[in-house]
Every structure is written in C-alpha cells, then in structure tokens.
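Subgroup meeting minutes
Present: P.N., E.W., G.H.
Scribe: E.W.

1. P.N. recapped why we're keeping a running log of single-chain structure predictions: easier to compare across weeks, and new members can see raw inputs and outputs side by side.
2. G.H. added today's entry (392 aa).
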Amino acid sequence: MRHFSQLTPERRNALFHREPVEFTPDSPPGVLAVALGATLYSPATRPSLADDVLKQAARGVVSMVLCLEDSIADAEVSEAEDNLVGQLSQLAGRVPERLAKDALPLLFVRVREHGQITALVRRLGPAVRLLSGFVLPKFTEDHSVPFLEALTEAEAACGRRLFAMPVLESPELLHRESRTEALVGIARTLDKYRERVLALRLGVTDFCAAYGLRRTPEMTAYDVQLVASVIADVVNVLGRADGTGFTVTGPVWEYFRPQERMFKPQLRQSPFLSGRAEDVRAALIEHDLDGLLREIELDRANGLLGKTCIHPSHVAPVHALSVVSHEEFCDATDVLRPERGGGGVLRSAYTNKMNEVKPHRAWAERTLLRGEVFGVAREGVSFVELLAAGVK
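Output recorded in log:
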C-alpha cells in the first residue's frame, strides 16, 4: 500500500516531485508509525464492517481502528466482539493473503480489557493475519502491563507481529500534581516494551471531560490551555528526537456536520482560486473543517504526527497536510548533505530563511522520512491541490 494510491499514476506524477513509497504491515516500525496518517475509527458493531474497510481503503485510508471501547455502549460489547470476529473472518475470505498487504489498511482493534486481546486472537484463527495490533486504553504504568503481557502472549500464539498503540487519556496525566510521576512511569513501561509500541495516541476528549469542557469547531485543542499543557508535557517526556521518544499522534477532531458559526472563516481565499480549489474551500468552511486544518498544522508544530479521525471527510486534509512541500524538502536535503556534517549555517535554497545544520538535523531527518511515506510535492504545488485531488 501507499498514500495517494487512489489517484491515477498521471495525477500523482503531476503533483509529486517524489511520489510516496510503498509499505506493508511488515515494514519497519519507524516507517509504519509515520505512515499511519489519518487513523479512521469505526465502531465494531457496524454490520457492514468488512465492506467499510474495503471502501475506505479504496478512498486512501491506510490505517483503521475497529473499536470495542468508547464508541459502543457497555451492553453492546459481546455483540460487537461477535460481529468483529465474523466480519474480519468474512474479509479474510474475500481478500487472499497475497493481496491483503496492498488491498487493506493497517487494522487495529481498540479493546476495553486485556483479556479481550488473547480471546479475540484465538477466535479469529487464520483471520488474525489481517490485524496489525491493538489500541490499549487509559494507559498508565499500573494499568498497562496486563495489556502488554496479553499482547505478547497473543503474538506468540498466532505467530505474527502485533503492535500496541497506547492511548494516553487518564486523569493522572491531566492533573498537575500527578502528571510528572505518571509520565515518568509510562516512559519506564514503554521502554521495557519498546519493540511492541508503534505509536502513542492522545485521548483529548477524555482530558476535556475531566473538567466538563468541549472545544467548539472554531477552536483547536491548543486553544484549550489545560489540554495544550498536557500535549506539551507528553511530547516533552515521550516524543523526544534523541532516540528515546515515540511517535505521538494528533488528537481527534470531533466535528463533521454543519454548525452555526460564531466566528468568521479562517481560511484565506487566495490560495484556493484555481480549478476545483474554490469548491474545496467552500466545502471545508461549510463543514467547519477549516478548524481541522489549523489543528493539523499546530499538531506538527508541536511535535505530533498523524491524527485520530472519526469521519472519512477528515482523511484527505490530514494526508494533504502531511505531504512534504518542495521547500521543506530542499531545506532538509541541504541540512543533511554529507559535506555539512561539521555544522555551520547556510542560506536556504528558497533564499528566505537560515538553515543551521546541527540544530535542524533532527527536523530534517524527520522531514525526509515523512517525505518518503507521504511524498514530496512538486515546486509550486500546495496542499490545496493535494487536498482537491484527495477529496471525493
């Protein structure tokens, strides 16, 4: 699979200076963590789950979470487990193993209890080949070990690699008096199970719930100071670029239907005045997705990559803004040239900024990895064209 595979080769060639590379569920964890992109959540109770997975894959989704936790009622858990097993077994029968790595997204199951991991792997039998891992809720040092041990047991039982994606959403992380101790404990646990952890996810809705808060469509997670402070501390402790950190993904965007707007639209008109772009701008504003675009940009500026999504309309914006611009590519390439190993400062190829080799090296390495996975846009191609190409 690869990002933007839903586009024709001719369209990709017109948009990309370097096209996205192919990857599979067997690719290195560092590549897969970046490749997650917009991870689309779906309740495991959906009767058409197998069809949904295939449909979203055709639209460019490369990672999905089939949810047995917050998206379903407590009374629906048993029914959801049965449906999940039945639908994945049906999907395995429809997609031969030789095609599954190209035809299906990376699939994860979000569980409630650690016992669900081993039970589901046992019930799935051969269909477990479709799974890339499990999403672990309310991850703390005390709560997490049984989940990680169950994952280890399940992996041994089925004979295939299964990743963990912990969700950081517990009150201990939000409350100021317990945050540092909680983060240090999580870091200890993650380090012990490092090879099993693909990426960390943020449960911002749970953080808001602890104080009875909910952001409006005009506000990003970073406008809610309680939430912004948690994100900063999570990245500070768990997202470092010194080899000890993990990929931390962006929080969910909750809105996908038209709402009454309190503030003026924040999308400038001028970048959208070509081709389908103005239609795309109008659609984004109508559905309040201009706030999503702002939040995606702020996610990356604050050290997050990828995003939890609960609606298919969110996928194209996340992926379009994940493509490396031609200017970013030139800057990163210049910083990492072998002859620059001794450091120094140089003027950017676009002659609009300073590139300082040593301080910008980690940024450049991350940028080129993102460019491999999401591609590098051609000179003059902006996220608007990429977005218009990805919107269906």
